[in-house]
Amino acid sequence: QLHIGESGGGLVQPGGSLRLSCATTRFALDHYTIGWFRQAPGKAREGILCMSNDGRVYYGDSIEGRFTASRDIAKNTVYLQIQSLKPEDTAVYYCAAGDSRSYYPDVDEYVHWGQGTQVTVSS
Length: 123
Hints:
Layout: E1 5-7, E2 10-12, E3 18-23, H1 26-31, E4 32-39, E5 46-51, E6 57-59, E7 67-72, E8 77-82, E9 91-99, E10 110-113, E11 117-121
Parallel strand pairs: 2-11
Antiparallel strand pairs: 1-3, 3-8, 4-5, 4-9, 5-6, 7-8, 9-10, 9-11
């Protein structure tokens, strides 16, 4: 099983920002595409974006520009930055590793999942 896990979630006020971290291994960064996903209560898990092993970022459908990704190879970590948070962003956020040929955050293409981190946007 590939080591991968999220951190950085919490309670945030509307309009605030948050950076989530996805810690994994150098092997994963070199050989997999890392995707970010979220699942709101009562809804299906949806793809936000993914970062290929060369660092390019690909976005899911209907994802606003409030979401961006970056990585720190020295720390084996991929980040998800969320700006201008809204109550509807409340969800469990997951990162996952998928086939390196994946250029879209399709849930079905990712096989190694973290445990998720809760993000709650509320005043």
